[in-house]
Amino acid sequence: MIDLKEKAKELRKIILKTICKGGGGHISASLSIVEILAVLYYEIMNIDPQNPKDPQRDRFILSKGHAGVTLYAILADKGFFDKKHLDTFGRRGTILGGHPDMYHVPGVEASTGALGHGFPFGTGMALAAKMDKKDYRVFVLVGDGECQEGSVWEAALFAPQHKLDNLVVVVDHNKYQALDRLDKIVSLDPLVDKWKAFGWAVKEVDGHDIPKLRDTFKGTPFIKGKPSLIIANTTKGKGVSFMENVPIWHYRLPNAEETKIVCNELGLDEL
């Protein structure tokens, strides 16, 4: 079995190198979801890199598409595409743009980036599975800032109405969005109660605790006949001390001095 704690460290190195080499990207938003995606892709989902369009496969949608480099790192590591493409991120002619593109990147189930779109898309996929009497599951990861979008709550109303217990939504609850803390812009509190009131079965978990994430995903659906909502409490910029919970790192790249700290903390020779 893969040591997911070590895998998470490896993925963080890939994310930093890919974004810095590409000249831009959303570092802190990508770092907060590493453990969540690692547990899903290496232990939970039924997927086959050699048959990425298998009708019976589980689906994953990264609704917060600006964190796409984390998804790219895992898809490359799993063998959906050659790792050499990571070196082309952000360059002209690459298949790896700033947001995932389902028409160019093997393993990407939905083109995302405009916030509030991926979750409704995934809800439709889950409904299709029910209608076609197929057993695949749909996993969607949304940002907590993304939950300020009205389309999120439309989908949140729709899924329980249709008893989509094959749908699992994870909220990356790092409590920050692009420019500041959520509660200083548009507060989501009480987040658990909101989702429960919409008819979802809800659990909270430490979004960096691999054993707890594993157990939580394995326990879905939490209630038969209801979609499952996991609020994953995370740290934005997790793994790099000076980036953690500092809003500017939603956009910035490290300078020369900061790069030395990153390399030291992540065990890299260079970025």
Descriptive terms for the model:
271 residues; alpha/beta; Rossmann fold; five-stranded parallel sheet; 9 helices; 37% helix
Describe, in plain words, how this protein is organized in 3D.
Helix content is 37%, strand content 11%. It has one domain (4-266): Rossmann fold (3-Layer(aba) Sandwich). The chain has a five-stranded parallel β-sheet, sandwiched between helices. The protein has helices spanning 4-22, 27-31, 34-44, 68-78, 118-131, 150-161, 191-197, 210-218, 256-266, and strands at 59-62, 138-143, 167-173, 201-206, 228-233. The model has no long low-confidence stretch (mean pLDDT 96). It is globular. Helix 3 (34-44) packs parallel to helix 4, helix 3 packs across helix 8 and helix 5 (118-131) runs parallel beside helix 6 (150-161). It is an alpha/beta fold and 271 residues long. The chain is built from nine helices and five strands, in the order αααβααβαβαβαβα.
Put simply, the count of helices is 9
Query: What CATH architecture do you see?
Result: 3-Layer(aba) Sandwich
Q: Residue-averaged pLDDT, rounded? A: 96
Helix and strand run: HHHEHHEHEHEHEH
Q: Name the shape in a single word.
A: globular
